[in-house]
């Protein structure tokens, strides 16, 4: 004799997939949003200012988790940061289409509406950074060995902004692009409210890997020269 409870269990029907699909999509979107907010996010390289380390159009993955544990950017790291004070004023931004909006929401691609930049950290709070003529760049009196600088560039620029000596305040960063003669970095914003420095709390995270194109996949380690300063 079959019990009524067993009979009911045996005849229970699974819910149709189309009923469960919205729930699965919702869970996937929530997980993607959490990953984008707290773990990692894609960022598209918008210009040639970081050549040859990064090419325009490269996609990098940005570590957003480390700052949540109180870690601050270090010398030599490539970081993504919010526009600190009008650095991108006048830069045209193409309005995103619907697909771009969806992909940027879940962190697969960056938002075209976000005003973020990417540069290399040269000096942190307390450092003295200087350069004159063709260089080299010096941090706390020690010359940097910079093989990542774009071929044919000099470490500094022979213009009124290319010669400088600054002391970085606590909580700020001095950043420069690897393509020194094509990067509007800290050198060229010394008249803004931060004197060209980037506040640490404007940093989104550290770029850790080139994820796309596939043929350019590579990590972005800190150059050895920064361990000597």
From TrEMBL:
Predominant localisation class: membrane
GO biological process, one term: signal peptide processing
A GO CC term assigned to this protein in UniProt: plasma membrane
Active site: 49, 119
The Peptidase S26 domain, residue ranges: 20-212
Location(s) in or outside the cell: Cell membrane; Membrane
Chemical reaction(s) catalysed: Cleavage of hydrophobic, N-terminal signal or leader sequences from secreted and periplasmic proteins
EC number(s) on file: 3.4.21.89
Keyword terms, alphabetized: Hydrolase, Protease
Protein name (Swiss-Prot/TrEMBL): Signal peptidase I
Lineage: Bacteria, Bacillati, Actinomycetota, Actinomycetes, Kitasatosporales
Record gene name: lepB
């Amino acid at each position: 004799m079959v019990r009524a409870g067993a009979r009911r269990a045996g005849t229970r029907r699974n819910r149709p997939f189309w009923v469960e699909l919205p729930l699965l999509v919702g869970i996937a979107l929530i997980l993607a949003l959490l990953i984008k907010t707290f773990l990692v996010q894609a960022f598209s390289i918008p210009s040639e200012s970081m050549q040859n380390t990064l090419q325009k159009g490269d996609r990098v993955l940005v570590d957003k988790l480390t700052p949540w544990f109180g870690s601050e950017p270090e010398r030599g790291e490539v970081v993504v940061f919010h526009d600190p004070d009008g650095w991108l004023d006048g830069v045209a931004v193409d309005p995103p289409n619907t697909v771009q909006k969806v992909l940027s929401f879940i962190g697969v691609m960056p938002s075209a509406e976000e005003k973020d930049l990417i540069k290399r950290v040269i000096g942190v709070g307390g450092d003295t950074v200087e350069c004159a003529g063709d260089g080299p760049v010096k941090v706390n009196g020690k010359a940097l060995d910079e093989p990542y600088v774009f071929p044919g560039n000099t470490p500094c620029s022979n213009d009124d902004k290319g010669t400088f000596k600054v002391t970085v305040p606590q909580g700020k960063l001095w950043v420069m692009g690897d393509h020194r003669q094509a990067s509007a970095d800290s050198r060229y914003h010394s008249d803004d409210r931060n004197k060209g420095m980037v506040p640490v709390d404007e940093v989104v995270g550290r770029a850790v890997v080139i994820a796309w194109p596939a043929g350019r996949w590579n990590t972005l380690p800190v150059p050895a020269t920064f361990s000597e300063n």
